[in-house]
Amino acid sequence: MVELFVPTLGESVSEATIAKWYKKEGEAVKLDELLVELETDKVTLEVNATSAGILGKINFVQGDTVKRGDLLTQITEGGVPSSVAPSEKQAEPAIVSAPQVREAIMSPAAGKIAAENNISSAQIDASGKDGRITKGDVLSAMDNKTCSSVPAVSDRLEERVKMSRLRKKIAERLKDSQNTAAILTTFNEVDMTNILALRNQYKDKFEKKHGVKLGFMSFFIKASIMALQEIPAVNAQIEGEDIVYRNYCDIGVAVGTEQGLVVPVLRNAEKLSFAGVEKSIGDFGKKARDGKLTMADLTGGTFSVSNGGVYGSLLSTPIINPPQAAILGMHKTQERPVAINGKVEIRPMMYLALSYDHRIIDGKEAVTFLVRVKECIENPERLLFDL
Q1: Distance CA 321, CA 176 (A)
Q2: Where are the domains of the chain?
Q3: How far apart are CA 133 and CA 343, in angstroms?
Q4: Contact present, 329 and 316 (Cβ < 8 Å)
Q5: Could you tell me which residues come within 8 angstroms of residue 231 by beta carbon, excluding any fewer than 6 positions away?
Q6: Hey, is 294 helix, strand or coil?
Q7: What is the DSSP letter of 23?
Q8: Which of the listed ranges 90-94, 258-262, 322-326, 350-354 does the model predict with the highest average pLDDT?
Q9: C-alpha–C-alpha distance, residues 30 and 50, integer Å
Q10: Distance CA 50, CA 20 (A)
């Protein structure tokens, strides 16, 4: 009998939630096969089988809170799969806030409509995955008059879903940032003409040589690094009564996922090439989508960059990721009329925002930082020749 425990969850993380079981009690499992996912307030952890055999009793089901060292289950080496159906505790429950008037599993919205209109699952043809009844199935049953004396469906529906640990942690950290730091935001705009031309000229050769696409994020990260080295206060943080200045740049890159915003960190970004930055960002994006980010990926960071432009944002005030002192916000590139040498021209323009902690960064330093980023983007030769 091999026991399977909750592993170390990471620095400053004491609890996790059972997100999903991939195997059932009595099923055969292979060595290193994924058994269960644990969700912490920072990352999702996978727990794999440490031995081949038969999965024993599952001690915690989806939604349960666990701590490091808790016994999740046991694996019987060389056992025979059980033909007995798994217990009700193990079966994944349907989460429905309305009274349940069904035998089959319904989505929350479908369950609420069915309950309000006294419809049983036997009266509904299920079309969802694994025989689940969807909201559309209930409405279809009502439209086809398969149910007698069905009152009109209310359009004032609600669905209550428990907040995930990651979402709760995001809310906590953002609110702490606003409560603790003296956050101000300064704005500027940047003409993207030269960067667009440079990217269009070399993007095919770049991708062919390095195996990764040339994006705009690498230019802004490189520009930020140059500005951080000139204005070290933007790369600093407060620790107690001290200000800690760094001679290295660990840049956090905000990545949106279905579970929420995460900020993986490019370590020693000042030593990375354009290709190195793009490859690292691409790897982080894939790991974030697959839920494979580790604690090491998310820990630390001296400065962050967030690109709301990918979602169409024209202007915003990003919130500092504590204990960092500043964050750069990129936005959508949009053609606008601007004055160039006394004439009005249509140029691709982007608004930039720098939110900063006014406790350690003065207004002059913040404005100068943003101007340096603007100058590097509008004149990319500065990045190439370190000017």
Answers
A1: 10
A2: 2-76, 96-160, 165-385
A3: 63
A4: yes
A5: 365, 368, 369, 372
A6: coil
A7: S
A8: 350-354
A9: 9
A10: 18
The dotted CATH code for 96-160 is 4.10.320.10
Statement: 2-76 belongs to CATH 2.60.40.3500 = no
* Residues 274/218, Cβ–Cβ less than 8 Å: yes
Q: Give the chain's length.
A: 387
Query: What pLDDT, on the 0 to 100 scale, is given for residue 256?
Result: 77
**What is the value of pTM for the model shown?**
0.65
Contacts of 17 (CB under 8 A, 6+ apart): 38, 39, 40, 63, 64, 65, 66, 164, 165
- Residue 337 near residue 325, CB atoms below 8 Å: no
pLDDT value of residue 129: 65
- Reduced 3-state DSSP string for 75-96: EECCCCCCCCCCCCCCCCCCCC
d(CA 151, CA 294): 51
Catalytic positions, please?
358, 362
Q: Do domains 96-160 and 165-385 have the same CATH topology?
A: no
Which CATH architecture describes the domain 165-385? 2-Layer Sandwich (3.30)
State residue 341's pLDDT score.
92
Q: How far separated are the first and last CA of the chain, in Å rounded?
A: 65
In angstroms, the Cα distances linking 276 to 108, 182, 207, 292 are 45, 34, 12, 20
Dist. CA 260–CA 88, nearest whole Å: 31
Cα of 338 vs its chain's centroid, Å? 36
What Rg value do the Cα atoms of the chain yield, rounded?
27
DSSP alpha helices (H): ranges in the chain? 108-116, 135-143, 165-180, 193-210, 217-230, 274-290, 295-298, 363-378, 381-385
Beta strand 251-253 with 303-307 is: parallel
Q: Does the structure show a pLDDT above 60 at 116? A: yes
Q: Above 90 in pLDDT, residue 192?
A: yes
